C-alpha cells in the first residue's frame, strides 16, 4: 500500500550545511493498517509523512503509494494520486471564511460530480463524522474536536484510501482525543482506510495502531507490531515513550521519595515484574508465599490490554535474604515473568532499568 525505501530528506541550514531531516528510512504500511510514527520534536516525523504524498520531495529514495512510484509521476498524475491520500493536521487548517459545508465542498470543486451529488456526498460525510447539525456553522463557532471532524470530512471528500494524520489530536484534550481516535478507527474499519498517524504520545499509538515506528534524529530506530513493541521494547527511547504512556514514572517518583523506603530496602528487595499474556492470571504472588514462604508487598500494579493481550507491570517488595531472591527470580523466570532488580537504583528522573 505504502512503501518507502531508503528515504533521505536533506535540508540546508543557515550555514549551508546539510541537515538530514530524514535519514535512510524504509518502512511499509499494508492496506487497512493503522501505522503510528512516534518521536520527539524535530525527529523528522512531519517531513517523513509529507514524503508519502510528495508534499516533500525526498532527496533520495523511492516512494510507492497505491502502486504509484510517486517521484516518477507527472504533474497531472501526481494530482490524481494525491486525491487518494487525505491528510489532517494538528491545527485543522480549515478555511475560516467558509462554513463547515463550504470547507468540505472545497476539495470537490474540480470534480465531475453534479451539484446534487456534491450535496449528497457532503451530507453523507458530515453525518459520518457526526456534524450534520453544524453544516452552516463557521470554524470559529466550533470546538477543537468539531474542527478536527470537519477536517476529517474534508480529507475524505475525494474517497481516499490513505489518510495521513500529523499530530491530529495534539491540540485536543484527552476526552476529545479519545473521540477522534474512535472515529479514525471507525473509518479504518468501515472504509478499509489505511491510516498513518504521527504523534509524540505513545498513548495514542497504544489506543489504535497496529504497528509503530519510533523515530529519532531522522531515523527509524525501532519498528514492529504494537504487542511486541509494548511488551519487549529494545531501544532506550522506545522504553522511555512506553514508560511515559503508563503511570509508572509517577509511581517511581512516589516510591523513591517515600521516607520509609530506605528502611525497607535494608532487608527487602525492590523488583519490577512484567508479564505478557493470559496465562499469568494465576495467583503467582500467593504461590510464591506457599512454595517459598516469600512475602510480597505490591507497591504498584498496572494492566494494559493491548490488542486483546494483557501486559502487566508490578513494582513489589519481597521479604527475605539473597537466597530467597534467587528462589523468587527462578520462580518468576519459570512463569515467564521478567524481573528487574531496583534496589541499587538511586532516585533519578530517568530510570534506565
Ligand atoms: N523546510 C525546512 N528547512 C530546513 N530544515 C527543516 C525544514 N523542515 C524541517 N526541517 C528540519 O528537519 C528536522 C525535522 O523536522 P520535522 O518537522 O520533520 O520534525 P517533527 O518530528 O515533525 O517535529 P515536531 O514534533 O516538532 O512536529 C528538524 O530539525 C527541522 O528543523
Ligand atoms: Mg511535526
From TrEMBL:
Q: Which residues form the ABC transporter domain?
A: 4-242
Which key words are in the record?
Amino-acid transport, ATP-binding, Cell membrane, Membrane, Nucleotide-binding, Translocase, Transport
Q: Where in the cell is it found?
A: Cell inner membrane
Under Gene Ontology molecular function, one entry of this record is: ATP binding
SUPFAM superfamilies named among the record's database cross-references = ACT-like, P-loop containing nucleoside triphosphate hydrolases
Pfam families given in the database record: ABC_tran, NIL
Q: How does it sit in the membrane?
A: Peripheral membrane protein
Query: Per its UniProt entry, which superkingdom is the organism in?
Result: Bacteria
Q: Does the keyword Ribosomal protein apply?
A: no
In Swiss-Prot or TrEMBL terms, this protein is called Methionine ABC transporter ATP-binding protein
Q: Which organism is it from?
A: Orbus sasakiae
Taxonomic lineage per UniProt?
Bacteria, Pseudomonadati, Pseudomonadota, Gammaproteobacteria, Orbales
